[in-house]
Amino acid sequence: MGFMGERRVFRPGTGDVDPYRLLTALVVPRPIAWVASLDADGVGNLAPHSFFTVASVRPPVIAFTSIGAKDTLHNIVATGEFTVSIVDEESLEVANATSAPVAPELDEAQLNGIAMCASSVVAPPQVATSPASLECRLRHTVGFGQSTMVFGDVVAFSVDEDVLVDGHPEFDRLRPVDRDRRRRREATRAEVARDLVLLEQVVDAV
Predict the structure, then answer these.
(1) What's the pLDDT band for 192 if we cut at 50, 70, 90?
(2) What percentage of the chain reaches a pLDDT higher than 90?
(3) N or C end of the chain: smaller count of CB under 10 Å?
(4) Mind listing the pLDDT tens digit for each residue in 113-133?
């Protein structure tokens, strides 16, 4: 079914228009980049970022956005390396826990009991239980107001053998989640409840 009704136009910078709420509602689904980095002294940082995408295939480049000057951004600019681990269904809650603000000298992985493992090329580790991780070196950053987009060259793909089919990652085995999973899950539950009510009405009518 198409949408042919009246449209409302929202102009950023006018009235009470909130571009953040509109962007996060319309640019969906958004995968979660679970970014691990090290500061100049080797202290680890692990945090989820939901503005994450592929920027280039040849060369392989990924990008994520830091809203505000967070520890992740400081570390990557200082050391030039980071990893991105895939957040799967089993790690969603603990990944969310690593978004809580903590002092820079505290390691979110240690605080939340998250096992990390060494990367093959870069210094920052990756989440051991993640089905796949990308090892990256900083290409450059681009600032936009209070946000900074981080571009990283992927220098290694680390993929668990159990998610590979004929040597290629299988989506159903990766079971990645995205920022809007909970919203869609709640909507699905509402749809199921509605269908059950309709079914009962049909049965009663028969």
Answers:
(1) very low
(2) 75
(3) N
(4) 999 999 999 999 999 999 999
Question: Bridge partners of 53?
Answer: 63
Tokens of 30: 């958004």
Q: Percent helix, strand and coil across the chain, each rounded to 5?
A: 30, 35, 35
What average pLDDT does the segment 37-42 reach? 96
**62, 152 contact by CB (below 8 A):** yes
Instruction: Report the candidate in 61, 36, 54 with the shortest Cα–Cα distance to residue 129.
Output: 36
Burial status of residue 37 (CB atoms within 10 A of its CB: 0-12, 13-18, 19 or more): buried
Residue 98 CB coordination number (10 Å): 23
pTM of the model: 0.83
Is the distance from CB of 33 to CB of 49 less than 8 angstroms? yes
Band of the pLDDT at 24, cuts 50, 70, 90? confident
Are the C-beta atoms of 73 and 148 separated by less than 8 Å? yes
d(CA 97, CA 112): 7
Burial of 21 from C-beta contacts in 10 A (0-12 / 13-18 / 19+): exposed
- Of 114, 139, 141, 140, nearest to 126 (Cα)? 114
DSSP 3-state of 113: coil
Alpha helices in the chain (DSSP H): 19-26, 71-79, 92-97, 108-111, 171-174, 181-205
Specify the DSSP element, H or E, that contains 83.
strand 81-86
